[in-house]
Design a protein that fits this description.
About 50% of the residues lie in helices and about 0% in strands. By secondary structure, it is an all-alpha fold. α2 crosses α4 and α3 crosses α4. The radius of gyration is 18 Å and the shape is elongated.
Amino acid sequence: MAEPTPRRNESRLRPAPLLFEPTQAAADPEHFFDLESIDDPRALLARATELTVAFRAAADRAVEFQAIAAAQLADPRRFDRLTTADIAERAEWTEDYAVKMVEFGRDLLRGAVEGREHVDPV
């Protein structure tokens, strides 16, 4: 994973916004966030780098939410809890990975990851 996602009280660099592309543009395999229309290599590198940072940040944040959800689904206090095998099947993970994600999610929920006092899942 890349760097941890800062929380509300921490300063944070904002990656470039990920704007949803119109359906028609997304259907064109050559079209990708209008990068193909940028002629200046400096501008292309800058915009492509912004998108790379934004996608990495989004992926890291999504993984945190996956882990939180896995931990919540595996919580033994839930009457409808799932086994790690069930979670692995739903998420298309191996069971070993599901176990690690449940543990990571529990750490996030406790706020114990990387010295964080509180984890705000929203």
